[in-house]
Amino acid sequence: MSTTESETLKYVPTTCPYCGVGCGLNLVVKDDKVVGVEPYKRTPVNQGKLCPKGATCWEHVHSPDRLTTPLIKKDGKFVEASWDEALDLVASKMKETSDKYGPHGLGFQVSCRTPNEECYLLQKLARMAFKTNNVDNCARICHGPSVAGLSLSFGSGAATNSFADLLNTDLIFMMGSNAVEAHPLAARRIVQAHQKGAKLIVADPRYTPTARLADTYLRYNPSTHIALLNSMMYWIIKEGKHDTAFIEKRTKGFEDLKKTVENYADAEAIHGVPLETVKKIAFEYADAKNAVIIYCLGITEQTTGTDNVRSLGNLAMLCGNIGREGVGVNPYRGQNNVQGACDMGAYPNVFSGYQKVADPAARKKMEEAWGVTDLPDWYGTTLTEQINACGDEIKSMFIFALNPVVTYPNTNHVIESLKKLDFLVVQDIFMTETAQYADVILPGACFAEKDGTFTSAERRVNRVRKAVPPPGDAKADWEIFSMLGQKLGLKGFEFTSAEEIWDDMRKVTPSMFGITYERMEKPESVHWPCPTVEHPGTPILHKERFGSEDGLGTFFGLEYRQPAEVADAEYPFTLMTGRLIFHYHSRSQTGRAAVLDYEVPEGYVQINPEDAKELGIANGDKVLLKSRRGEVESHARVTDEIGKGVLYMAMHFGNASANMLTNTALDPLSKMPELKHCGVSIQKVTEAN
Ligand SMILES: Nc1nc2c(c(=O)[nH]1)N[C@H]1C(S)=C(S)[C@@H](COP(=O)(O)OP(=O)(O)OC[C@H]3O[C@@H](n4cnc5c(=O)[nH]c(N)nc54)[C@H](O)[C@@H]3O)O[C@H]1N2
Ligand SMILES: Nc1nc2c(c(=O)[nH]1)N[C@H]1C(S)=C(S)[C@@H](COP(=O)(O)OP(=O)(O)OC[C@H]3O[C@@H](n4cnc5c(=O)[nH]c(N)nc54)[C@H](O)[C@@H]3O)O[C@H]1N2
Ligand code: SF4
Ligand SMILES: [Mo]
């Protein structure tokens, strides 16, 4: 690079827009265009390293496909509109719904991809303007069971320890997490801990790239976590390896657990793991001085998701592995801001900082701060239930930066549901599979074009900084909400910066109060809870007491239950779904990064060699998969990474989508759909060419 060229370059430190690790990076800017990404070495999170998605996260920013102007559907076609026209229509249609059907007639679906300030503002708008708690975010189909389960067990629904704290552990037990592909820069810490001598156990029905790192890899039958964990706990208690001092001092409910696990002394018939192996890993976990549990969607995306999470909570408390360095229970939260969207109150039963809408004092506080009366006290309809209620309870919907047609279970059902709405608004940066069904599309600015904050999986609040202007008439999502709020006549919605919105939130949120924009200038930023501006922040939770009212952790006796739909004669295979390192969800962004698209341009289905042989399927053959809900074509990848009777598809490919097949059955406690387990059939269509 010549000196003159380098002189015109600007480096803007910001946070990666993809996964919940929250890596810092520098956007390289020339003449108001992002031209590349350079490492941001000062942040302790990723120490200058990036995964393939982070390194290419700038490529979609200036894509010619970006939405640049509001669009209104007229006679089945989208036509360009001014902001006034589009927002007047949105305001009047939503008011019409609310006048006719009341607060239950509207549904707000909030993104986990967008900054805290924007999530906060949309839930505030919904609650202030329409007195509705029908506000939810896509944690519902991600780590909703973590929020529910860890709250029940520990009194707080967040990860207990930081990524770097893995370097203090002696043993890492991973279950249902493929961090090497899904959280690569957190996986780097796992590798570092392993190199320092920590033992690594990976339990997963699939031999994943993460499993390859393990000292012990444990294959269990899909969705049998509770049977396996109960067996482990039975043997720990039987051999007296549990931490009685911790149990007595800091927990309740132990007898309930002890009694329940007695039926699981040998549950190999359910989980498929030989008894000797169960004992070996149980004792390794119990004997380690400091052992940490890492889990992810293999645990949560099931109709038993909340119980699965609580079961891991049981195991950690049983061995006293909570509340200090090197231990804990850590859900690797998915999206860049899934922690934040929940923290900001884009949730049907809480305001920001998990202050309950049912609590009169919390409502009163918000009413005074926002200058309104009668904020709703009821539990709103969740994300997944809102889709099921389209046309019935829900008449109008606002979908903010989500792509449900690709990412929610049972695509045909999602499309049919959206079609039943009187009015649908979609706010995105691209024309997505979902936006096609909208009445109005509002063009947002992407992460590189606005200020704000993302809260990572370790509760670290990281700054997002504007590097370039948005394309055409597109606007920062917070500006759009601010304009819409004013159209709806809301007081105090004349925001002029993201920081103003953050401060508006901070004032009413004790756990965030101490985190100012000024403090977030430091590359390491701050972990919440942080109640005062002098408070250093809290990287490790539950040190002295749990977050519950009595300060105790709770054991639960949990029985194994089958998934809602299991393989049978008609649909003899179990379909598991998940991720690939090169793509992110519905690929609206990663599909527009040349190298990522080059690496994996289309989806495939993994099948075990014995099953493939029986069905006459060879590597690369085109295959047809069917479930009770739909069918989809893909290509076979024959591999013994997957067990007999099980198939695996990535969720990323809208044109061959795993969610054509998946089941909408819900976990009763968290309303998580069973995205990771359903019955399917597979047959060959044509041979590979
Ligand atoms: N590259 C990439 N990274 C991402 C994302 C992305 O789209 N792409 N998304 C982000 C988000 S939002 C999230 S939530 C995280 C998710 O991160 P992960 O949960 O780690 O990723 P998944 O691949 O969905 O699921 C992990 C593994 O669960 C296993 N599994 C374990 N037990 C079971 C079981 O009983 N049944 C089934 N069916 N599977 C089981 C599967 O083998 C699968 O490999 O990743 C984040 N990071
Ligand atoms: N079968 C199956 N299904 C799954 C999963 C699975 O494992 N298996 N995982 C589930 C999980 S964990 C998750 S988190 C969900 C993810 O589901 P989604 O959140 O629906 O997936 P994304 O593709 O990330 O959609 C985000 C949308 O926001 C847009 N966007 C990005 N940034 C901005 C912005 O700044 N402003 C605006 N206005 N728009 C923006 C993108 O273009 C994209 O269309 O999928 C779930 N679905
Ligand atoms: S690990 Fe996650 S946050 Fe870090 S660069 Fe990759 S996608 Fe971005
Ligand atoms: Mo997620």
UniProtKB/TrEMBL annotation:
It catalyses: oxidized coenzyme F420-(gamma-L-Glu)(n) + formate + 2 H(+) = reduced coenzyme F420-(gamma-L-Glu)(n) + CO2. It is an enzyme of class 1 (oxidoreductase). Its EC number is 1.17.98.3. Keywords: 4Fe-4S, Iron, Iron-sulfur, Metal-binding, Molybdenum, Oxidoreductase. GO terms for cellular component: membrane. GO terms for molecular function: 4 iron, 4 sulfur cluster binding; formate dehydrogenase (coenzyme F420) activity; formate dehydrogenase (NAD+) activity; metal ion binding; molybdopterin cofactor binding; NADH dehydrogenase activity. Gene3D superfamilies: 2.40.40.20, 3.40.50.740, ADC-like domains (2.20.25.90), Dimethylsulfoxide Reductase, domain 2 (3.40.228.10). SUPFAM superfamilies: ADC-like, Formate dehydrogenase/DMSO reductase, domains 1-3. SMART domains: Molybdop_Fe4S4. GO terms for biological process: formate metabolic process; respiratory electron transport chain. Residues 9-65 form the 4Fe-4S Mo/W bis-MGD-type domain. Its cofactor is [4Fe-4S] cluster; Mo-bis(molybdopterin guanine dinucleotide). Pfam families: Molybdop_Fe4S4, Molybdopterin, Molydop_binding. Belongs to the prokaryotic molybdopterin-containing oxidoreductase family. This is formate dehydrogenase (coenzyme F420).
